[in-house]
Write a structure and sequence with these properties.
By secondary structure, this protein is an alpha+beta fold. The protein has three domains: about 5-50 and about 140-235, Gyrase A, domain 2 (2-Layer Sandwich); about 50-125, Alpha-Beta Plaits, CATH 3.30.70.1400; about 285-355, Aminomethyltransferase beta-barrel domains (Elongation Factor Tu (Ef-tu), domain 3, Beta Barrel). The protein is built from eight helices and 20 strands. It has helices at about 10, 30-40, 60-70, 115-125, 150-155, 205-215, 225-235, 270-280; strands at about 5, 15-20, 25-30, 45, 50-55, 80-85, 95-105, 105-110, 135, 145-150, 170-180, 180-185, 195-200, 220-225, 285-290, 300-305, 310-320, 325-330, 340-345, 350-355. It has a six-stranded mixed sheet, with helices on both faces. The protein has a six-stranded antiparallel β-barrel with strand order 15-18-17-16-19-20. A hairpin with an 8-residue loop joins β12 and β13 (about 195-200). α2 (about 30-40) packs across α7 (about 225-235).
Amino acid sequence: MGSKTPLYDVYKDQAKTIDFGGWDLPVQFSSIKEEHETVRKKAGLFDVSHMGEIEVKGNGALKYLQSVLTNNVEKIKVNGCQYTAMCYENGGTIDDLVYYKRGEGDYLLVVNASNVEKDYDWLASHAEKYDEVEIVNVSNDFAQIAIQGPLAEKILQKETATDLSEITFFKFRDGVDIGGMKALVSRTGYTGEDGFEIYCSPEDAAKLWNLLLKVGEEEGIQPCGLGSRDTLRFEARLALYGQELTKDITPLEAGIGFAVKTDKEADFIGKKVLKQQKEEGVSRKLIGIEMIDKGIPRTDYEVFKDGEKIGFVTTGTQSPTLKKNVGLAIIDKEYTGLDTEVEVQVRKRRLKAKVVATPFYKRSN
């Protein structure tokens, strides 16, 4: 049995749960398609308490983070957060993460669940040469609930006096009172929709979950599982560590070059390789494909052109919004032009597909 989040007992009888990176998590409550649609049109509630949180504090914190993260940490003000990557010397990705600046010399890093120990060990091992930096894995101090969808703000606003419209994209407030419970609320998410991620104490999680489901009833809020979380993030072309990003895939190959600032003054791990990739271009990159023949391009399926292997699928599914079989694939750059025909090895057959624009879905407002 995997680890259980503070919310497991609340939904264990309502959802189909699976082992996800060592955690027992809900894959779906109603159906993936229904939950997907609810988030696109109304609002969905996700248990993301399995995510890891690592605190980096001290006078040397900024300088230290600049040396291990690809984005420019200096640019973020208090109550702001930023998406970034952490790389090996060869440019391969250790993890992609978001960090929150809670105060001067006070940062909270939110990392992928399956990478918590690896990330913590890496961060700790590179902190030794910096004075006044303290790194603590505080994952057990937090539960995390995401409310996502066009009606998310309307629902959450019913239970807090804080004006949520003032928390703009990639900003947050700490100590927000929601129904008598204190939480850190950030306007972030992993669905391509508007919404918030709420960091609360594990003791408050169940009460908060039930409260939001109750006050959002009239807007049609639904609890959602990992299945729709994956189809939603995939349509919005948000990278998933272990698929679009790995130790063998650099942030530039995965299309998150916007989070890599090779022009920042600080030297960071992997900078040399990533700078070269930025200047010379990458030899392969992440693109969208749409199937022409009948079939679904699944993770790790090989992609061919004229009998030669040119890459592989990182994620693929039938898009609930587009009703088409589409995928993200990393392929050699000479075949990445729109409408280029390629073939995907689906079991014993090679099926026709074409390169299409991504993201597959972009919200209209």
